[in-house]
């Protein structure tokens, strides 16, 4: 066996420094890795020799990439080229569009931990429509309310948790609670930033999809992404123009859907139920137990299902407990747990969606933000008697939104707040739901996503009583484990709450 570290990420500024202090060279590009790895299937030479050849003949490597990707259709070779982008000054609304791409990695500026300073994106659509004044006036009212609520909530939380506040090490946690609830009144135009890691194949897809967008901010973003990636790796960023399918499909579906629904749409107040389990795998426990038999006992899945179908709940639990027996709070259930699915119809605020969208392996479909769905008011705002002030800025926001909507269409959504809601459809297998539950049901998680995750877990346990029995946050894992096994797990979750 021979294992070679073929490459790793460098900060672009380090690369520029190295280039300045060395003779000019053409091989400082991820294209050589893609070209070398593309040759593995047909060239008997060791991979490190193929990489050396690609570095020595960069133009030939680029032609090879174009031939393999464009003519032969082997797009996967582009996945060996990886880019890191600093995305600075994007609106929260645009960041949601970026993070829709599930096979990329993101780390985002958090409005829970950083005090907001009032920066926001002025959408080009609103500027061109001559609506800049009303937009900015509303933003300023939101930001003033944010600053006011932050101070009120901070004082309230430090008094409410006076014992914990006595230790200065707990101050960032308490301060963060004030920030995360005050931010419910700031707009989706608020500037953010994130670091994004993406391979060339997914970057190309992002560029192509964004090129079909009708949003001016997204159009500006895609120009930057395309120009900078093309300079470094021209041979693997090839398909950047949207096809008719990508450019027109969703608009055509929307038009047909509205036509088919004419006269049948509901009137009056929309359904605001926050969570509903709309579909799940029948006999999900049986599917997972049968999959465990399939993987370990050498029987066909059909036979395994027939066997499990005759078992008692106690017998199924005996098998599943062998999965859980040595599990610690940081462990994931095995892939067999992916066979059972649950689909949830949710109504969530933008603050809650900011957490939910990070679970990109789930199927996540969303509707636009809709003021008719109401807003989420943090309990702490009610506790300090400021719900009236909170609702005043919401009413101003929605009045402005209605005026903007008539002139700029979907760009009006920039003015909506983190408290405004949207409808989301989530389909998750049980393994992914365990991941969501451990992370978001934990005491350190944001309160709204914590409540949502707990309700999703409760619904899952109703339909999968055997395999969903250990759903819960990290902080509650010892109690869940003890209830199932009559003893505590070996490891205790770290104390992340208070010192």
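Sequence proposed for the structure above (499 residues):
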């Amino acid at each position: 066996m021979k294992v070679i570290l073929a490459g790793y990420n460098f900060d672009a500024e380090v690369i520029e420094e190295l280039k300045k202090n060395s003779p000019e060279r053409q091989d400082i590009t991820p294209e050589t890795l893609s070209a070398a790895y593309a040759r593995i299937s047909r060239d008997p030479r060791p991979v490190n020799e193929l990489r050396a050849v690609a570095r020595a003949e960069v133009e030939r490597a680029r032609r090879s990439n174009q031939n393999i990707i464009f003519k032969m259709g082997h797009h996967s070779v582009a996945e060996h080229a990886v880019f890191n982008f600093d995305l600075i000054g994007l609106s929260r609304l645009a960041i949601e569009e970026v993070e829709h791409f599930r096979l990329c990695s993101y780390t985002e500026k958090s409005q829970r931990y950083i005090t907001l300073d009032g920066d926001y994106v002025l959408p080009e659509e609103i500027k061109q429509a001559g609506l800049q004044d009303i937009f900015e006036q509303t933003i300023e009212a939101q930001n003033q309310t944010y600053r006011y609520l932050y101070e009120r909530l901070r004082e309230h939380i430090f008094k409410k948790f006076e014992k914990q506040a006595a230790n200065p090490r707990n101050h960032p946690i308490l301060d963060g609670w004030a920030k995360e609830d005050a931010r419910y009144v700031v707009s989706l135009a608020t500037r953010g930033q994130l670091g994004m890691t993406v391979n060339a194949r997914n970057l190309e897809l992002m560029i192509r999809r964004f090129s079909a967008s009708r949003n001016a901010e997204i159009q500006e973003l895609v120009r930057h992404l395309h120009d900078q990636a093309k300079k470094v790796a021209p041979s693997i960023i090839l398909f950047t123009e949207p096809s008719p399918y990508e450019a027109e499909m969703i608009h055509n579906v929307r038009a047909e859907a509205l036509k088919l629904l004419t006269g049948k749409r509901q009137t009056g107040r929309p359904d605001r139920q926050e969570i509903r389990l709309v579909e799940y795998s029948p006999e999900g426990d049986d599917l997972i137990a049968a999959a465990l038999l399939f993987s370990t006992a050498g029987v066909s899945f059909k036979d395994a299902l027939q066997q499990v179908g005759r078992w008692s709940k106690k017998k199924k639990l005996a098998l599943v407990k062998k999965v859980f027996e040595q599990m610690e709070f940081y462990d994931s259930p095995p892939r067999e747990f992916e066979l059972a699915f649950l689909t949830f119809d949710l109504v969530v605020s933008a603050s809650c969606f900011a957490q939910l969208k990070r679970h990109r392996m789930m199927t996540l479909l969303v509707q636009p933000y809709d003021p008719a769905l109401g807003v989420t008011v943090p309990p702490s705002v009610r506790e300090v008697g400021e719900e009236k002030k909170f609702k005043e800025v919401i009413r101003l926001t929605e009045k402005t939104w209605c005026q903007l909507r008539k002139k700029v269409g979907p760009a009006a959504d920039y003015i909506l707040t983190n408290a405004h809601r949207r409808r989301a459809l989530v389909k998750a297998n049980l393994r992914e739901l365990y991941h969501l539950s451990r992370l978001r049901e934990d005491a350190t998680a944001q309160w709204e996503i914590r409540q949502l995750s707990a309700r999703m877990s409760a619904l899952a346990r109703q339909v999968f009583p055997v395999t969903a029995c250990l759903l819960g946050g990290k902080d509650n894992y010892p109690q869940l484990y003890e209830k199932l096994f009559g003893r505590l797990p070996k490891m205790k979750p770290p104390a992340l709450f208070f010192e």
